Each structure stands twice: as C-alpha cells, then as structure tokens.
Amino acid sequence: MHEDPMRQFLPQVPVAYIGTKKMKRDPVCGTRTVWNGQFDVKHVDAINADILLGFPKVFIHGDSLDEYKKQFETELKAEVEAEEQKAAKEEAARKAAEEAEKEAAAQIDEGRAEAIQSAILALDPDSNEHFFKSTGKPKLKAIRGLLGDDVEDVTQEEVDAVFSLMEA
Questions:
Q1: DSSP character string of the chain
Q2: Is 71 inside a domain boundary?
Q3: pTM of the model
Q4: Is residue 79 in some structural domain?
Q5: Residues 62-93: pLDDT tens digits?
C-alpha cells in the first residue's frame, strides 16, 4: 500500500485501546500501530483515528480514557458486589437447608433414625449407586434396598436429615 505523503501533516489524535488483549495491532488502517494492552494510548493521524473510532467497543478517543476508566471500575465493582451477594445468599440457603435437615432429623422416631443410620453406614461410599456424586448424600433407593420392609416409606428428606446429623 502506498502511503499518502501529505498524511504526515495531518493532526495527530490520541486513540485508546479498551479491549482485553495484551497486544492489539491496528486491525483496519494498516498503520502498523501496536497498542500494548488495555488502556494504552497511541497517536495516529486524524483520518485513521476517525476509522478506528468507528469501533467503539475496541477504541475510544484518548481524551475520554479517564472517564471511561471510572465507568469501567464502577461497573466492575458492581459485578463483584453482585457476585458476593449471590455467594452470601447461596451460603445462607445452604445453612438454612442444613438446619432444616437437622430439625427434620430431630423429629424422626429414634428407632427409625437408627435404622436409617445403620443402612447409611452399610453403603459403599465409593459407589455411584449408593451416593449422589454432586452432593455426596446417600440415595433413597440404596437405603430402601437395605432396609427392606423393616422401615416403611422412608423418604429422601429423612435420609438427608439423618445423614446431616452423622456429618455434624
């Protein structure tokens, strides 16, 4: 490509890269300009700057960089806070479920709870047929298989409650 010799007389415009790559080469103008990571500012002639600024998710005018950084940090903080709130809610829900299981276990007849506990202890802890992979809790089908007719209508909630007491 033959460069116009008059371009050297055009005003230089600061262009900031706002993408996430560690290095960004001029993708469209052929100026061979390289930005060294997010928020790096390079000066290019006004014509090329106009073209690059046509990609507002990748480049912004260098004079707007401080304002953009403030907005970026504000949005990032909001995202972090939202993630922290989500994690706190999940933890509270997990604790509430544990407490509910303990309360349910306390309401189970002692003989029934002992039978369920004996069945849990008889299960193979490495078996996917006996324990859920995701939660590590015993499967109802495995407990019922061991208890047979000794204990009627055992529920998953009862099994979970007894198991949570065993873990405590």
A1: -PPPGGGGGSPEEEEEE-SS-S-EE-SSS----EE-STT-EEEEEHHHHHHHTT-TTTEEEGGGHHHHHHHHHHHHHHHHHHHHHHHHHHHHHHHHHHHHHHHHHHHS-HHHHHHHHHHHHHS-TT-TTTB-TTT-PBPHHHHHHHHTTSSSS--HHHHHHHHHHHH-
A2: no
A3: 0.52
A4: no
A5: 999 999 999 999 999 999 999 999 999 999 99
